[in-house]
Structures are given as C-alpha cells and as structure tokens.
Prior knowledge:
Belongs to the UPF0045 family. This protein has one domain (about 5-95): Alpha-Beta Plaits, CATH 3.30.70. Helices cover about 40% and strands about 30% of the residues. It contains 3 helices and 4 strands; from the N terminus they run βαββαβα. It has helices at about 20-35, 50-65, 90; strands spanning about 5-15, 35-40, 45-50, 70-80. It has a 4-stranded antiparallel beta sheet with strand order 2-3-1-4.
Amino acid sequence: xxxxxxxxxxxxxxxxxxxxxxxxxxxxxxxxxxxxxxxxxxxxxxxxxxxxxxxxxxxxxxxxxxxxxxxxxxxxxxxxxxxxxxxxxxxxxxxx
Length: 96
C-alpha cells in the first residue's frame, strides 16, 4: 500500500485542563507508533499507509479523551496519490 501524508489537528476542550498537555498525549501516541511524523505549530503530519495512519489518529484521539478532555475537535488533511508514494520530504526539501 503506497504511503500517504495525513495531517491531524486535535483541538481539546476542557474546563479544567490546559490544552497543551492534552495535545502532548496525542503527539506521544504518534511518536510511539514508529511512523515518520513532523510536529508543526498547527498540526502533526504523518507519513505511511493510510489504514495505519487512520488507526494511529484514532488512538491519538482516544488518548486525549482518556487524559481528561471534555470533548475534541479533530481536523484531517490527507494527500493520496493512487499507485505512487507521497512524502513529506518531496514537499519540504526545496525549502530547507
């Protein structure tokens, strides 16, 4: 299965817990997954097979809720190229 890019932004809502530690829970799930990823100021972008990335995204959402978020807003962006790989490097290397 070709690699895609999946950007995920989880916006936790809580009346008692600051949002940054909750977002850190999601990033920890992504980091522990072993997929290539990059944290940006607005979202975390992952690279890998679509099914795997969607499963990781679901685990990240569950981790934020388990950490005490009252609710979450989740935004996805995906780049899929049938029959071909999509990489973060191809998009960012000209700018580094």
